[in-house]
User: Fold these one by one.
Assistant:
Number 1:
Amino acid sequence: MTSEQDVDQVQPSVEGVPPARAGAVTAKESGAGGASGESALVVEHLSKRFGSRVAFDDVSFEVGYGEVFGFLGPNGAGKTTTVRTLGTLVAPTSGSATVAGIPLSADNGAAIRTRISIMPESPGLYLRLTVMENLQCFAGLYELDDVRGRIERALRAVNLLDRAGDSCGSLSKGLRQRVALARALLNDPVVLFLDEPTSGLDPVATREVHELIASLRERGVTIFLTTHRLEEAERLCHRVAILNTTLRLLGRPDELRAQLFRRSLDVRLRAPLADPEAVFGAVREVEGCEQAPSAGGYTLAVSDPEIAAPAVARALVGAGADILSIAESRHSLEDVYLELIDEDVEARRG
Ligand SMILES: Nc1ncnc2c1ncn2[C@@H]1O[C@H](COP(=O)(O)OP(=O)(O)OP(=O)(O)O)[C@@H](O)[C@H]1O
Ligand SMILES: [Mg+2]
């Protein structure tokens, strides 16, 4: 264990405290998606500075048991430092947190580490050892009981039982990532921290890791997932937080979209209208109109797309236009993210 990265892997258990079962609590039972009742993570006004550099500042949120919580933000936003802080690898500068039911403090570090796992961005495996030897080695560091059973269950969870005898050096990047995930599952964590689990993977390997995370989600494992891949967060996470040193936004992806974007209709016509203002201005439900970049395309601001769409269709037919499509505009989490991060860049300029 020489590099700082290696420190991430070592989560020795203490006094044989058995880790609490995460799989026993389902997302439904725990009310995942909200912060009601006891929470897997409670973070209050947490900040971390390295000298004069602020890694993250005044961050507060809660994560329910069984919830998959996405933590998004640009490079240097403080995501990994948040994981490292909640994972007891670095001490916060101020604020407080409860991790897997235990208050975050220097004294509680060892107890917290028995109940959580961190899968760091780089797998950090011993490449000359086999998959099995790597897992045995880490199970030893955790001082876990029933090592055989745990390794078998972890390898089965990531579909790697048949590669147990292969050296990690001979595995592809995607397979190594799966070994790292198996290692993180060994202690049956109450909270599983995944730091960019699909970074650098091709689309096939990415999809495999997504499927594994989705199956953990089904089993009710509480997951704290940092990612740059917004479609990953949208697909896997009950709620997401967007961090850029401070927490900028938190909620379900659909809530965030509704919060940041007005509802609108995308209209596509075979040919542009001679006088769009006159046609759309006459429809009571339309509050504004913008020409889209493509010829014959318009984006209409509306309060209720379901009421506005038929009225717009009638007006267009009345004006003799050929309608190709009228549909509610879809904003992805990526739109939300870019809107926010753009705002931050603008604010910095100002
Ligand atoms: N050990 C450290 N010493 C000094 N500064 C640090 C240390 N670790 C992180 N930082 C700084 O804290 C800030 C947040 O870094 P962090 O690694 O948490 O960002 P991140 O959101 O994980 O970024 P990325 O998306 O690139 O992984 C950065 O400015 C970084 O340089
Ligand atoms: Mg990081």
Number 2:
Amino acid sequence: MEQLDSLGLVIKDELLRFLEKEFESSKLNLLPEKYKGGKIFSHPLIGVAQGNDPIFQKFKEVVGPEHLTPLEMWVGSGQDQLSASDLYVVSMVFPFTDKIRRESNNPIVLPRITLPAETYSVARNYGNVFKRDIMKQTINFLKEKGYNAVSGMSCDAYSVILKGKFYSTWSERYIAFAAGLGTFGLHEGLITEVGCNIRLASVVTNAPIKVSRRKSDEPYSNCLYYAKGTCKECAKKCPANAITEKGHNKTKCNKYRWKVARKMIPRLGSILKPDSRRINWKLKEDIFLVGCEFCQFGVQCTDKNPMVSDYLDFD
Ligand code: SF4
Ligand code: SF4
């Protein structure tokens, strides 16, 4: 057991160092010249959950019945059946750089709609390509070590589900929560130690990577509103009134996001890169993701866990 633990630590350290190098040197982690180049994401964080963690069953109740466990994702990606305890989920955090976060706090206010800063929309669009590349590279990194790995978003078992409820079969936010990387906010974003203005990705592997400890199983412990009844800054920032004391209204949010996309895609034109998604298990190509996320800029949890001082032990 001790031997497995130290092997798990070594793989985790090596993977983090590998990712740090990629974040530093990859050309895919750069904005286009028109937006002055510059990095999109600063540095990665990783967290690891074990495949048999009971929390994954709970996600079927909380996220939706078709949300997959790591074993279901593994088998759904064409891998052989094995014991859930032999699987590990590596969740990766991609924090936007301080520069992008600063510039994104100046939205474009038009008479009928408020749009995100162009820099942010382009960063989010380009960042997606980098994210997919990192998932692929992480899989290769683990394969070179003699293990196997699959990535949720890129496999056939991944789909966005639009059936009354709107969710996906593999929620990166919930996976990151399981891997101890943060907890949810009033805006339903994940508040990590480097804030909520992040992107997330994950891979499932049979490499015995050291599991991360969740500081709390309480899903909203990093949010000032849920912990202390204060803040609510994200609610004030949302132009769609999709955030209230009752929480985040996904329907209102998505409606506004579509409106943003309809304006932003022609505005940015051919500079955008296409992506694809399975929606109700049908592959939809040429999707241009441009984001929204006013609720994440210039708020107390943009770039940090605002509850961190409350956790400090002064004894
Ligand atoms: S802005 Fe404040 S209320 Fe909203 S999620 Fe962040 S900490 Fe919570
Ligand atoms: S993503 Fe946009 S519409 Fe949705 S809650 Fe945040 S600010 Fe509001």
